[in-house]
Amino acid sequence: MFSRLRLARFSTVMFCAFMGLSSLGWASEPRIAVSKSPLSLPFFVAKDKNLFAKHKVEPVLIECLGGNRCVKELTEGRVDMATSSELPFMFAVFQGKPIGLVTTFNTNKDDMKFVVRKAAVKGGTKGLTGKRIGYVEKASSHYYMDLFLLYNGIDPKTTVPVPMGPEALAAALAKGEVDAISVWEPWGHIALELGGADVAVIDTPKLYSQTFNLLVSNEYRLAQTRKSIAVLGALDEAIQFIKKNPDEAKRILARDVGIDLDTVKAAWSTYQFELTLQQSLLTTVQGQARWARREGHVGSALAEPEFLNFIDSSLLRKIKPNAVDFVYP
């Protein structure tokens, strides 16, 4: 009886150990929050063409509406990686979150749109003074709104900012609940469709070169270096596919983001897909940090972080050393 009891206990211990190892193995595959945006195309292509599996990594891609929400998933521990513009990254660094930016994979100067109700600007853009402007708080939409207003000689403090989720902006504009919106694609396109003849995009010079980046939790990046590099390798191969097969890549983009092919074709030349870490990224983030402090979006007592400490070039250097600007250690 005694020996059978010991055997049962031993079997239980071994079963638990086996389950623990199995869980650890499953957990080694990254959970990636991917923004449902044209800027995320390399992820859609890598999944469609089985490039992740080719590089011996099988990530779980979790769709989210906007890089700010993707970063929230990351900083709250529900995913291991996230796609985002540099602005949510900047805010996360101010909060001291344990994350690292490992690559830029897309740069775009025309993804942001400022869409207005025509009645609000009959006398010109100065008519936006005192008007309600919908935006996504602490996202690229927020930053672009202020840039747009200042460029047009309007103090942002003289408007009525109305924060909301990106998916609510187009309908709010169409219903007249706001007079203008600052938004990224595909929501700009959706706003034009919903608003019809009552709304329009205000054309401006390219005020903002937005980057889209891959962020990784420090815990995952350090514990699963090979898997992290494998994700970069799959993205790089996806980008090469996009360049060689643009027509098929456009169809994948239209399908996965849910916009019509003609819209994709019209915007295609604005996307610059490439794995990079450039000096301009750091310059942009530092400028945004000054904006955030000046406008009171971060506590005045907080010291500006050393953003270089939150950008890790070591993984990208493993596969594309020439893609890293000299400024990154």
UniProtKB/TrEMBL annotation:
The keyword Signal applies. Keywords: Signal. Belongs to the bacterial solute-binding protein SsuA/TauA family. Transmembrane segments: none annotated. It is found in: Periplasm. Pfam families: NMT1. Residues 40-249 form the SsuA/THI5-like domain. This is ABC transporter substrate-binding protein. Its main location: periplasm. Residues 1-27 form the signal peptide. The keyword Cell membrane does not apply.
